[in-house]
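Open question from group meeting: does this chain pack into something compact, or does most of it stay loose? Before anyone orders reagents, we agreed to write out a predicted structure and look at it together. Recording both the input and the output here so the notebook holds the full record.
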Amino acid sequence: PTYWDQYLDITRRSDVSRLNATWAHSFSKMKLGATLRYEGQSHSQDKDEEHGIESMEESYSAFGFTAGITALEDKLDAAISYDAGSFSEEWDGDTYVESDGTREFGLVARYWAEMSDQYTLVPHFRYVSHKLGWSVYDSLDFARSYSNLVLGAGNNWRPTDNMLVIFETGISLYSDTYENPDKEYTNSMDDILYWRIGCETEVNSWLWGRLGAERAWRSTSYEFDPYYLSGFPAEDLEVYGNPTFGYSVTKTYIGATAHWRRLFLDLVLEPEFFNAGPYFISGRGHNLTSRVSLKFDFNK
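Structure tokens returned:
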């Protein structure tokens, strides 16, 4: 696989990151933060006529930034991000594929509206727009773009000092478009409604427990195979009949935090383990945990 196959997401890949600089400052009534990033990779080979090897050069690079603010007495959080990338592949000095307009834009915001000492409403918003454009042999133009809009509202309820219960509901609209020289195709995957609920509470002096669940009622429609990203004729990727599916997705989460003096152990059990069960029941292998962290507090 070449770089234009591997790096379609263009952003924040740790294995090719070369620079990641972060700045933050707290002012009297607001907090500001920003991150600059650069990543890239290249590969080349020399021509070897004796063994029938052509010369080749391919490269990938991306630049991006994220800026955020916390204001209005720490009640408003907002951030904006932008990334732009480029890639190319040449064989024997001739350009095979190169990028043609590759970028990603994101905007997120939330507001903490304190209704009482126990209740806080948190309306939130997220929008992401991504486009990957490329040309083949300087004559065939292709593009893959998607956008995702999420609107929701959460409710934080603290019935006691050592318990927090959250509930969130909202909608998510997702559109995925593929363009080639022959035709344009669009897929959609919309969460008509989703909800999430979770609870964190102190079990005893050394243990906190967490339990959560989420469910989404999803509608999808397909005009092209979303896993087919190559630049071949339209009939190779078209999904005929524009099939539409309606289904629901449910996940369960269990986690815990244990601490002994300055040492803290936090873990989250793998959600798929609860959906499918252990291997001897489902025949599907999963990790027991999806996240494990260990912390030692030097300040205490």
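Observations to bring back to the group:
Confidence is low (pLDDT under 50) at residues 1-12, 230-234.
The radius of gyration is 24 Å.
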